[in-house]
Write a structure and sequence with these properties.
The protein is an alpha/beta fold. Helices cover 39% and strands 22% of the residues. The chain has ten helices and 14 strands. Strands 2-1-4-5-6-7 form a six-stranded antiparallel beta sheet, with helices on one face. Strands 8-12-13-3-14 form a five-stranded parallel beta sheet, with helices on both faces. Strand 12 (312-316), helix 10 (324-334) and strand 13 form a beta-alpha-beta unit. The two termini are 24 Å apart.
Length: 369
């Protein structure tokens, strides 16, 4: 997959701007605070339907523009080519803000889509952020979300099952919160979807672990496995839908007391181990950085292989904490993976030697790039 063009209008600090990208490495270079990350955010938004920085859509609108003669809002558009198609594909998002009211429309090849699930997987990418160490040291929900998105990117069936599970769980918990005795009507479906999710998570825990070790060996020229992932959940002794339903029934009083479904795959925990150490507790910040980076590279590898499609790599200052030697090795690996977008404040942090032919897009302190 190649992102050919990106059009941005009234988005963040940009007015009206068109970017044309190289098929290889695109370096977004400039001072902090002038909009480099906004470009990655626009790409992410076009692929996921939401921002990775805010859930408040109005914050994405450029508020430094005089809208007296026009509508307040933003418009972004991506033109990309899949590895499997002869023709280009376009994704557009239009957002309009009128007082407290707002409207948002998403189009694929000029045809409007209504559900975010129809957008996920059209534009395939992996995002690398300075905060990625939260994958190692953050709350369990961050790792759960990582696995859910990873599997959803390669399986529409999993995404549909996850959406159904979360919807049923929400309705069941609502009935528990008001002490209604009707919550049990959701037990059969909850158990059915939970077991599907559980099996897929077990499968991809093993896949991710192996892929992380393979990539680490390749980048750093090592011969031994250093990563291990342990999936911990309260379903370890449950292997059938019937057993799950029985567990729900046997814990009814406790669920009513707590007003929630307190166990299930939605409470799963993933422990990452590095050299037999629990990374969250015992690894240095540098080791956590490498671990999270390898985790994201493994995500790219798994999605790319499953979809038989090259993946865009969006890298936002995620390599700054690496020493020069490690950064060089990682970049040499990344530049062979496909199209890359990377933000930097110093050219020397990215231009390793003269053999790399990078497309440098230099930002200036103004309303557009």
């Amino acid at each position: 997959m190649i992102l050919k063009k990106l059009y941005i209008n009234q988005f963040r600090n940009y007015k009206e701007t068109m970017f044309t990208f190289s098929d290889n490495v695109n370096v977004l270079y400039g001072e902090n605070g002038i909009g480099k990350t906004n470009i990655l955010e626009a790409i992410y938004l076009l692929g996921r339907g939401i921002s990775f920085r805010t859930r408040h859509e109005k914050e994405l609108v450029n508020h430094n523009i005089d809208y007296s003669n026009g509508e307040k809002g933003y418009y972004i558009k991506a033109v990309f080519k899949s590895d499997h198609n002869e023709y280009d594909t376009t994704v557009e998002i239009s957002y309009k803000l009128e007082g407290k009211k707002h409207t948002k429309h998403v189009f694929i090849n000029k045809k409007e889509i209504k559900a975010r699930r129809d957008l996920i997987g059209k534009l395939i990418f992996v995002l690398f952020l300075p905060t990625d160490t939260n994958l190692i040291e953050g709350s369990p929900s961050i790792r759960r979300d990582f696995f859910h998105m990873l599997i959803s990117m390669v399986s529409n069936e999993y995404l549909d099952t996850l959406i159904k599970y979360n919807k049923i769980l929400k309705m069941r918990n609502k009935l528990l919160s008001i002490k209604s005795n009707d919550f049990y009507i959701y037990d059969d479906d909850l158990a059915k979807y939970a077991m599907i999710i559980k099996e897929k998570n077990i499968e991809y825990t093993l896949i991710l672990e192996k892929t992380m070790n393979d990539i680490h060996k390749k980048i750093f020229d090592k011969n031994t496995d250093v990563y291990n992932i342990k999936l911990k959940n309260c379903l370890s002794d449950i292997n059938t839908v019937e057993q799950y339903i029985e567990k729900l029934k046997s814990t009814t009083q406790e669920q009513i007391r707590l007003s929630t479904t307190y166990f299930g795959i939605h409470r799963a925990e993933y422990d990452i181990y590095y050299n037999n150490m629990q990374a969250k507790k015992y690894c240095s910040q540098g080791q956590k950085r490498i671990c999270s980076l390898i985790m994201k590279l493994a995500e790219e590898c798994i999605v790319s292989q499953a979809r038989k499609e090259s993946t865009l790599l969006l890298i936002d200052d995620a390599l700054l904490e690496l020493d020069k030697n490690k950064r060089t090795k990682v970049l040499e690996y990344i530049e062979k993976k496909g199209q890359v977008f990377i933000t930097v404040t110093e050219k020397e942090n990215i231009l390793i030697n003269n053999k790399h032919e990078y497309n440098i897009l230099e930002s200036q302190r103004c309303d557009h790039l």
